[in-house]
Amino acid sequence: MGKHKNWALDQKIKIVKEYKNGATISYLNNKYGISGCGTVSRWNQEYDKGILGQDNRGKKKYNKELEDIEILKKSYALLMEIRSKQHK
Per residue of the chain (88 residues), what is the pLDDT tens digit? Predict the structure, then answer.
């Protein structure tokens, strides 16, 4: 297994711009020695979303619904605590 290459942001942008100008993925993979078959496509999508320079490896996926449920549970527990103190 080969060593993972860390691509600089300016290199990724250069490659994505070549792709947007009509270069094929296989041509770019061969020209720059890119090993992943979906790498250029992913970079292109991330470039379009404005997140190409972000590194999200190892971070948990954000789940708004689960976070909302946890907030509601804590709010309810706090409300019950306040009510119990009011009735004493």
Answer: 456 788 899 999 999 999 999 999 999 999 999 988 899 999 999 999 888 888 766 666 666 777 888 888 999 999 998 988 887 6
pTM of the predicted model over 0.90? no
d(CA 45, CA 60): 20
Q: Can you spell out the DSSP letters for 23-76?
A: --HHHHHHHHT---TTHHHHHHHHHHHT-TT---TTPPPP-HHHHHHHHHHHHH
Under a CB-based contact definition with an 8 Å cutoff, are residues 40 and 34 in contact?
Answer: yes
Closest by CA to 31, choosing from 15, 51, 52, 9, is 15
Residue 48 backbone phi and psi in degrees, to 5:
-65, -35
Q: Are the beta carbons of 10 and 23 closer than 8 angstroms?
A: no
Tokens describing residue 88: 């004493």
